[in-house]
Write a structure and sequence with these properties.
Elements lengths: L1 E4 L4 E4 L7 E6 L10 H19 L3 E6 L6 H10 L3 H18 L15 H13 L3 E4 L2 E4 L15 H7 L14 E6 L13 E3 L1 H13 L3 E7 L3 H16 L4 E7 L2 E3 L2 E2 L10 H7 L2 H9 L7 E3 L1 H27 L11 H7 L5 H20 L5 H14 L10 H15 L3 H13 L4
Parallel strand pairs: 3-4, 3-9, 9-10, 11-13
Antiparallel strand pairs: 1-2, 5-6, 6-7, 7-8, 11-12
Helix pairs in contact: 1-13, 2-3, 4-6, 6-7, 9-10, 10-12, 11-12, 12-13, 14-15
Bound molecules: zinc ion (ZN).
Length: about 425
């Protein structure tokens, strides 16, 4: 299994820290408003990554956090006239319902910053003790220039970075590169700390939650490419400072989403909320549209893309429905195939979902032809289901009752005796029952 590691910019063989286990963390939303469809790309992508590791037989421990302590939440609380906790609860609830609607709810751990305040104090204290951080007027900053590998993830040189930064006049920091681990606040929600009232910095929150849940190092750290710098770079810097490691062995970043060739933004009015988008297209169609492009590449949303995805979804649905009927009528044994070498070949190359979708379409063709020619349908049926599970596609296939089966046989015998008026009547019943 090979993963493109954005830390080394190389395709690397996946070797887990603990045999048979995958520890994975993906940065979750800052819960101050509804998430947009761009935020759903990592969600859908890492759900697929999770499913594929499961398919390979790994025990996957998947965490994705809620950033529920953040200056943006303080601002939102003021605007909405409610408390920060109410803002966080409202948008956590909305996000969980998005996950449900997109069929991406498999996350094992959903830590919140508020549950890890004690860990955050301890973490910052240790960095100060190691002289990697310093307190200044109630703020605590990280000494970036003490990390010689700083910029390793985003391929930036520390000197270049330094010359590119505008230095503020009233700067409290020793170096313009230093970032805040703790920030003094004078309004909104504040937490007591050894450095006075304030809130923790976002980059610290994620590292602390990872360390608390998994220990010093995990296998995979994921997120959107926008998070590479400074967020993930700063997570790595803190982990190097405290634990002398890069926090994760494999860093994975998905590309962003454009709409009709333009970047999504509020000002362009092409900013689509996940909760609204799911009303336009069902989850299967959105996933097919996303998986047609490799996760690392930017993705362009067009009407054409969704029309095509719609057709693909319908083809899969139709053939599965027909096959399901024959399987139940004939009491055929399915679910025997657990591994398909072709799937492994395709997915072992850094989760090549565009090729997996092509293979899926081949199998749909095979299954259609097997149905037509009354050949064995169970093999292609099983393989299609394996792929659907990996991609997180869900099809509701009806379980037939004895009565349903009898009705179906009746329809067949009317057809055989060319009693078309009765056959049509029963056909209507079968359609109404979602059998045909
Ligand atoms: Zn994060």
């Amino acid at each position: 299994m090979k993963i493109y590691n954005t830390l080394t910019d190389k395709l690397e063989e996946f070797i887990p820290i603990e045999k048979g286990k995958v520890k994975m963390y993906v940065c979750g939303p800052t819960v101050y408003n509804y998430v947009h469809i761009g935020n759903m790309r990592p969600v859908i992508n890492f759900d697929m990554v999770y499913n594929y590791f499961k398919y390979l037989g790994y025990d996957v421990l998947y965490a994705s956090n809620f950033t529920d302590v953040n200056p943006k939440i303080i601002t939102a609380a003021k605007e909405l006239g409610i408390t920060e906790r109410e803002v966080a609860d409202k948008f956590i609830k909305a996000y969980l319902s998005d996950l449900e609607n997109y069929n991406c709810s498999k996350i094992d751990y959903r830590p919140r910053v508020i549950e890890h305040m004690e860990d955050i104090y301890n973490f910052i204290t240790k960095l100060i003790e190691k002289d990697m951080a310093y307190e200044k007027d109630g703020d605590v900053y990280f000494r970036v220039e003490k990390i010689k590998d700083y910029g390793i993830l985003s391929n930036q040189d520390i000197n270049e970075l330094k010359s590119g930064i505008r230095v503020e006049v009233d700067e409290k920091k020793e170096s313009p590169l230093d970032f805040a681990l703790w920030r003094k606040t004078t309004e909104g929600e504040q937490f007591e700390s050894p450095w006075g009232l304030g809130i923790p910095g976002w980059h610290t929150e994620c590292v602390v939650m990872i360390n608390s849940l998994f220990g010093e190092k995990i296998d995979i750290h994921g997120g959107g490419v926008d998070l590479k710098f400074p967020h993930h770079e700063n997570e790595i810097a803190q982990s190097i400072a405290l634990n002398n490691n890069t926090l994760a062995n494999y860093w994975m970043h998905n590309g962003h989403i454009n709409v009709d060739g333009e970047k999504m933004s509020k000002s362009l009015n092409n900013f689509i909320l996940a909760k609204d988008f799911i009303k336009l297209h069902k989850a299967n169609i959105i996933k097919i549209a996303l998986f047609k492009t490799h996760y690392r590449l930017p993705l362009n949303f067009t009407d054409e893309l969704f029309n095509e995805a719609n057709i693909v979804d319908k083809k899969i649905n139709d053939v599965l429905k027909q096959a399901n009927l024959q399987i139940q009528l004939g009491n055929l044994e399915v679910g025997k195939i657990k591994i398909d070498e072709r799937i492994n070949e395709i997915m072992d190359e850094d989760f090549n979902t565009p090729n997996l979708l092509s293979y899926l379409m081949e199998l749909v063709k095979d299954l259609n032809s097997a149905l037509r020619n009354k050949e064995d349908i169970t093999i292609s049926y099983d393989k299609i289901n394996l792929i659907n599970t990996i991609l997180g596609l869900k099809y509701d296939l009806k379980e037939l009752t004895t009565e349903d089966k009898e009705l179906y046989q009746k329809w067949l015998s009317y057809k055989e005796t060319k009693d078309f008026s009765n056959a049509d009547k029963i056909r209507e019943e079968l359609v109404a029952k979602n059998i045909l």
